[in-house]
From TrEMBL:
RNA polymerase sigma factor 70 region 4 type domain location: 121-170
Entry protein name: RNA polymerase sigma factor
An annotated GO BP: DNA-templated transcription initiation
GO MF annotations, alphabetized: DNA binding; sigma factor activity
Positions of the RNA polymerase sigma-70 region domain: 18-77
InterPro entries according to UniProt: DUF6596, RNA_pol_sigma-70_dom, RNA_pol_sigma70_r2, RNA_pol_sigma70_r4_t2, RNA_pol_sigma_r2, RNA_pol_sigma_r3/r4-like, WH-like_DNA-bd_sf
Residues annotated as domain DUF6596: 188-288
Positions in coiled-coil regions: none
Organism: Marilutibacter alkalisoli
One of the Pfam families matching this protein, by short name: Sigma70_r2
Length: 426
């Protein structure tokens, strides 16, 4: 094996194991920042030893054991050797002896309580949305600061500072390394689901840059969602979010041309949709709906959005789409989670079911909402509906405004092409 191949394999192992190593240390040290530092020390040791000794049979167990020893050494001999941390060090040693066999068995389980605790800490509402996203990708995704910066087209120092501040905030707020209970669980779970979906959406429709899609972010969000579903199998909205992401991700190959140009949903070659992802999504949706029915509760917002996505997935052709069902689902979503963005999507469904005039009327009702003032999809939708009504001059103005507002170069080119089409068809 070449050095390059070995380093790639070690990198892949780290991506799979780092969250579990950090989670194990964070439970013991009560400090996420310190846990990540020591986990990185263990990785450095692996990079030094594995090329010489070979990769161990159970690399995850090796990393955890090495990290434990590093934790004890660092606490005892470092600047943190106060009474509190020395006591932690003794506890670590005791646990290492008393629980060695149990730990080895648990390391074969890819998910567990420590990992679930880490999810809730990284997504804690005490942090800003941007900080939660960056910290989640760092701690749970194993992404480097540079990789996160590239994914979000941000400066690397900005992301680094965001992560440092997030860890400091968690420490200063003395956030407990635990899964919340009862009423607090629902509020905190909403934050976790929001973070995962934010990551997915940035990959599915990049807000800025030269690429329409960033598949790596979609894959990371799906991985996190699937892990969460395994950790919390009785939560309907967890399965609802997974269903939504699976079905949306199924369209990825059909969403761009060979040159990377965007292809809108109704124009996509549905033969290129990934049927395996669709089946997985529909199964997750059934699970979400089954849980909601058993608990005698309404379908939640993620489950409703997954049901909308399922309507598209079940349609063999664009003309087969059940727009009546989609319109009804959006009405229910707007009742449960009212927002101008939901209403804008509802306007599209109304237009497809009742005609562009009805859709435009609905879009116009929300046109003055402050949150939509700089939202490029409002003029984009209005442009499409005006074009379908033959009001091409007005449509061109809307498309041009949408092109000015978007920060994604691929989307801007698409919108300007649509604006030019208004000239041709006038």
């Amino acid at each position: 094996m070449t050095d390059h191949d070995l380093n790639r394999r070690i990198d892949a192992i780290w991506r799979m194991e780092s969250a579990r190593v950090i989670a194990t240390l964070a439970r013991m040290l009560r400090d996420v920042g310190l846990a990540e530092d020591i986990a990185q020390d263990a990785l450095v040791t692996a990079l030094e030893k594995w090329p010489v000794d070979g990769i161990p049979d159970n690399p995850g167990a090796w990393l955890v054991t090495t990290a434990r020893r590093r934790a004890i050494d660092r606490i005892r001999h470092g600047r943190m050797a106060d009474q509190k941390h020395l006591q932690i060090a003794y506890e670590l040693e005791y646990e290492q002896q008393e629980r060695h066999e149990a730990e080895q068995a648990s390391l074969d389980d890819p998910i567990g309580d420590d990992l679930l605790r880490l999810v809730f800490v990284a997504c804690h509402p005490v942090l800003s949305r941007e900080a939660r996203v960056a910290l989640t990708l760092r701690l749970l995704g194993g992404l480097t600061t540079a990789e996160i910066a590239r994914a979000f087209l941000a400066a690397e120092p900005t992301i680094a500072q965001r992560i440092v501040r997030a860890k400091r905030t968690l420490s200063e707020a003395e956030v407990a390394f635990e899964v919340p209970r009862d009423e607090e669980l629902n509020a905190r779970l909403a934050s976790v689901l929001e973070v995962i979906y934010l990551i997915f959406n940035e990959g599915y429709s990049a807000t800025a840059g030269d690429d329409w899609l960033r598949p790596a972010l979609c894959e990371e969000a799906l991985r996190l969602g699937r892990i969460l579903a395994g950790l919390m199998p009785a939560e309907d909205e967890v399965h609802g979010l997974v269903a939504l992401m699976e079905i949306q991700a199924s369209r990825s190959q059909a969403r761009t041309s060979a040159d990377g140009e965007p292809i809108l949903l109704m124009d996509q070659d549905r033969a290129r949709w990934d049927q395996l992802l669709i089946r997985r999504g529909l199964t997750a949706l059934e699970q979400a709906e089954r849980i909601a029915t058993a608990r005698n509760i309404e379908r939640g917002p993620y489950t409703l959005q997954a049901a909308i996505a399922a309507c598209h997935a079940r349609a063999v052709t664009a003309d087969d789409t059940d727009w009546a069902a989609i319109s009804a689902l959006y009405a229910e979503l707007a009742r449960q989670a009212p927002s101008p963005v939901v209403e804008l999507n509802r306007a599209v469904a109304i237009a497809m079911h009742d005609g562009p005039e009805a859709g435009l009327d609905h879009a116009n009702k929300i046109a003055d909402e402050p949150v939509l003032k700089h939202y490029h999809l409002l003029p984009s939708v209005r442009g499409d509906l005006l074009f379908r009504l033959g009001r091409h001059d007005e449509a061109r103005e809307e498309f041009e405004r949408a092109a000015e507002l978007t920060r994604n170069s691929r989307e801007r080119a698409l919108l300007l092409a649509r604006a030019a089409q208004c000239h041709v068809d006038t």
